Amino acid sequence: MTPVSDVPLPAFEPPYYAAIFTTVRTQDQDGYAETNARMEELVRDVPGYLGMDHAQNPGGLGITVGYFRDAEALKQWRTNAEHRAAQQRGRDDWYDSYTLHIAKVERSHGFKRA
């Protein structure tokens, strides 16, 4: 699995899209780590994929934000057959609940202490 960074991704030049995936997972996570690593590998091959941020609190709430240059890149990821199979496995086994929000980012900036 890709190590989770303690630093957010830099701001990108708008417009672009953000897919915000918020989850609460089940106790049974058999196969999750391997599938998650594969999805992180697979999404990198989508033209227009910009990166992702991820956070998980001790109580189990997880938030992953994937950034995509345009709606076509997001559609390519959404319709990828291997990703679709992983989504179904998530509904069947790994998630108690989730929400997905798709947003068009019109403004973006960042700050980093020197």
Outline of this structure?
By secondary structure, the protein is of the alpha+beta class.
SSE diagram, text form:
Layout: E1 16-25, H1 32-43, E2 49-56, E3 61-68, H2 71-79, H3 81-94, E4 95-105
Antiparallel strand pairs: 1-3, 1-4, 2-3
Helix pairs in contact: 1-3
Q: Would you give an account of this structure?
A:
The protein is α+β, with helices and mostly antiparallel strands and 114 residues long. The chain has a single domain, classed as 2-Layer Sandwich (Alpha-Beta Plaits). Helices cover 31% and strands 32% of the residues. The chain has 3 helices and 4 strands. A 4-stranded antiparallel β-sheet has the order 2-3-1-4. The longest helix is centred in the last third of the chain and has 14 residues, at 81-94. The relative contact order is 0.30.
Number of domains: 1
What kind of sheet is the major sheet?
Answer: 4 strands, antiparallel
Give the overall pLDDT as a whole number. Answer: 94
Q: Which strand order does the major sheet show?
A: 2-3-1-4
> How many strands in all?
4
Q: Give the helix tally.
A: 3
Q: Indicate the percent of residues in helices.
A: 25-40%
- Cα gyration radius (Å): 14 Å
Structural class: alpha+beta
CATH architecture: 2-Layer Sandwich
- Strand residue content: 25-35%
H/E element sequence: EHEEHHE
Unreliable runs: none
C-alpha geometry: globular
- As for the CATH topology, it is Alpha-Beta Plaits
Give the end-to-end Cα distance, rounded to a whole number of Å: 30 Å
CATH class placement: Alpha Beta
